[in-house]
């Protein structure tokens, strides 16, 4: 399955591979860009990890069997890797390399998440407004102790007002 290698790239969480999921989904004709953005939004409303979008993609492509296969493809490799690394990490938790790896992976995770966000925003409704709201939300998130719900509400309100005004 084309999704299994992405499992090992989920450094920083499932959002880090959304850009690649979108590219694969469009390249294979599973979704249009707009269709992918819709299913991404649906997956984010549902509780659970960001990688649950893969289950929805599998379901769309091949029904229940596709959902099961896609879920195994995205969760199994990274789970085995995480378990193995956790055992190694625990055995060597005072080693200097553990700190170096943690510090080194942080910018990689941030970069993957930013690139996925950019891929989604390229085709978002109200493109430049969506970019503006995303940037403002990121700034607010980094400068305040506000939780995600108020930020989502503020972002949605700003988007709706600007979208109505400019479109």
TrEMBL record:
<keyword id="KW-0472">Membrane</keyword>
<keyword id="KW-1133">Transmembrane helix</keyword>
<feature type="transmembrane region" description="Helical">
    <location>
        <begin position="147"/>
        <end position="166"/>
    </location>
</feature>
<protein>
    <submittedName>
        <fullName>Chromate transporter</fullName>
    </submittedName>
</protein>
<dbReference type="Pfam" id="PF02417">
    <property type="entry name" value="Chromate_transp"/>
</dbReference>
<feature type="transmembrane region" description="Helical">
    <location>
        <begin position="96"/>
        <end position="114"/>
    </location>
</feature>
<feature type="transmembrane region" description="Helical">
    <location>
        <begin position="52"/>
        <end position="76"/>
    </location>
</feature>
<keyword id="KW-0812">Transmembrane</keyword>
<dbReference type="InterPro" id="IPR003370">
    <property type="entry name" value="Chromate_transpt"/>
</dbReference>
<comment type="similarity">
    <text>Belongs to the chromate ion transporter (CHR) (TC 2.A.51) family.</text>
</comment>
<dbReference type="GO" id="GO:0005886">
    <property type="term" value="C:plasma membrane"/>
</dbReference>
<dbReference type="InterPro" id="IPR052518">
    <property type="entry name" value="CHR_Transporter"/>
</dbReference>
<dbReference type="GO" id="GO:0015109">
    <property type="term" value="F:chromate transmembrane transporter activity"/>
</dbReference>
<feature type="transmembrane region" description="Helical">
    <location>
        <begin position="120"/>
        <end position="140"/>
    </location>
</feature>
<keyword id="KW-1003">Cell membrane</keyword>
């Amino acid at each position: 399955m084309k999704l299994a290698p992405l499992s090992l790239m989920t450094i920083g969480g499932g959002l880090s591979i959304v850009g690649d999921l979108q590219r694969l989904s469009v390249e294979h004709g599973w979704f249009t860009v707009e269709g992918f953005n819709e299913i991404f939004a649906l997956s984010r409303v549902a509780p659970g990890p960001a990688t649950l979008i893969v289950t929805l993609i599998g379901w769309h492509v091949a029904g229940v069997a596709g959902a099961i296969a896609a879920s195994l493809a995205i969760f199994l490799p990274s789970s085995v890797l995480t378990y193995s690394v956790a055992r190694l990490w625990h055995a060597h938790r005072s080693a200097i390399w553990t700190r170096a790896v943690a510090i080194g992976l942080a910018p990689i995770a941030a970069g993957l998440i930013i690139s996925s966000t950019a891929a989604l925003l390229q085709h978002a409704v109200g493109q430049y407004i969506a970019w503006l709201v995303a940037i403002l939300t990121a700034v607010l998130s980094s400068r305040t102790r506000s939780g995600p719900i108020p930020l989502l509400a503020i972002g949605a309100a700003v988007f709706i007002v600007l979208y109505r005004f400019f479109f």
